[in-house]
Known about the structure:
The structure is a single chain. The protein is an alpha+beta fold. The model has no long low-confidence stretch (mean pLDDT 83). It folds into 3 domains: 2-56, Dna Ligase, domain 1 (2-Layer Sandwich), CATH 3.30.1490; 74-147; 153-281. The strands form 3 sheets. The protein has a 5-stranded mixed β-sheet. Strands 2-1-3-4 form a 4-stranded antiparallel β-sheet. A two-stranded parallel sheet has the order 5-6. It contains 7 helices and 11 strands. Helices cover 39% and strands 14% of the residues. The longest helix is centred in the middle third of the chain and has 58 residues, at 121-178.
Amino acid sequence: MYKIIGVDGKEYGPVSTEQLRQWLREGRVNTHTQVLSEGAADWQPLSALPEFAAELSPPAAAPRPGTVPAGQAKTSGMAITSLVLGILGLLSCGLTALVGLVLGIIALVKIKKSEGQMGGEGLAIAGIVVSGLFLLMLPIGAAMLLPALAKARERAQSINCANNAKQLALAVKMYSADNNERLPAAASWCDAIQTYLGSPRPYQCAADSELRCAFAFNRKLDGVKEGDIDPQTVLFFESATGWNAAGGPELFKAHKHSRSRIVVGFVDGSVQQLPPQKLEGLRWEP
Length: 286
């Protein structure tokens, strides 16, 4: 049995436990209501009595429909895949990053719509950011790479052209050895050295692959005896004038190609790759 002090300051009771619980449900008493239990010496608040703890505890909030208790949401596999593909963009030149960006956006939308049933929002955002960064870097990387590729291609063409020129120089020397040490006639030099070449490939130069012959002979050396020529005299040089072409420095101006250097062969059999500004200073007279 219990006695209580009401809100009006008056003492009521004694009342039974059930009656007090009823008043508690009706709101006539609350946790601060002063109560004197039968046999007790002191008044105390209702909240201090353990037999009323169940009634005084706040009801557990019911989860919203479609929500999952914290810690139980399933991480989105699509979000994880997005991040992985974004990171792999470093190895795939950004190709996987494009897929990672799309999956990350889709995963983020699905996570937000799941109302807590699906987790991994941070992973999805990370996947979008990483993938996006790699995609932004693609044009920058391409802009940096293309000049290097062009230079490498030019160098490969020059090396190929120089190697072919060395074979032509050797063929001219072989012709000279078989023809009383005289160089071939300028008007037919390509025809004259054909038998000393294993194939028509040495006449070619990658920059002028459509030409049957991408070199011209120094007309000043027409039939001249090799021993009477300064070894550093130009023997032949790159030119777009075709088969059996012969001439001098004027043919350099007619030669158009994408490389910054022109291959020049000399009487001593050496071959050099020279920039255009050095061509005017070459020796043309025997």
